[in-house]
Amino acid sequence: QVQLVESGGGLVQTGGSLRLSCAVSGRTLSNYGMGWFRQTPGKEREFVAHITWSGGNTYSPNSMKGRFTISRDSAKNTVYLQMNSLKPEDTAVYFCAAKLLVSTTYNYWGQGTQVTVSS
Hints:
mainly beta; globular; 119 residues; 7-stranded mixed sheet; single chain
């Protein structure tokens, strides 16, 4: 089992920044990849970014590049999502997730943290 606990969400004004954290425990993570997703009511969950635990290789869709940066601190077993130049449309619940690198499915999810961007 992998346990994930997100933190760092909150209310921020348009143009502001937040850094989300995801504390990871329960397994050796060398064979895992970590992802950030977001979801708003009535919409499908949206992929934000991915990072491999070993090597720190990152991937994010073009729509997320430039303002969102994923990183990890192996010593702290924590994954981060730095979000800059936030817009009201970034308002969502942000989730951290983990999957084995050989898998196409994220099997482990955190409880989510709310991010609200005011206009």
